[in-house]
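[stage:ingest] chain + small molecule (adenosine monophosphate)
[stage:ingest] validated
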Amino acid sequence: MRDANCIFCRIANGAIPSATIYEDETFRVILDMGPANPGHALILPKEHFADVTALDEMVAAKALPLGAKIGAAMKEALGCDGFNLVQNNGEAAGQTVFHFHMHVIPRYAADPAMVSWTPGSYAEGEMDAVAEKLRAALQ
Ligand code: AMP
Ligand code: ZN
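[stage:predict] done
[stage:export] tokens:
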């Protein structure tokens, strides 16, 4: 499904011009217009999937190897020291465009942390209770 009202559907299918760095039958990879670092890329499936929970399994299987390929190209072409693959699902998780996309962000040794959290802790028994809830949902 391609949604005419979805900006990433329109970009991925070429209806809106973009700084495309890679394209195949399943994906278009473009530069993010608000980059964390120059070269920050977005992997966009050409079909519309709102987020990772809606993603077709064949598309999902291709997304991670493509992230690795783009990241390796960034190391070669830009000389970055590493890269982040970041993928947000839901508003609470920072998703602002509701068409699945994976960020590929070139990273340098001197960069501040961009993907981080303050490690918390569990109360007595809480970890087991949370694990049990998740195991039940996964059955
Ligand atoms: P997220 O917050 O994970 O949904 O990421 C959405 C990303 O899309 C942000 O980093 C935006 O800078 C980027 N973005 C939104 N619209 C465009 C656009 N038209 N072209 C390129 N990047 C875009
Ligand atoms: Zn879309």
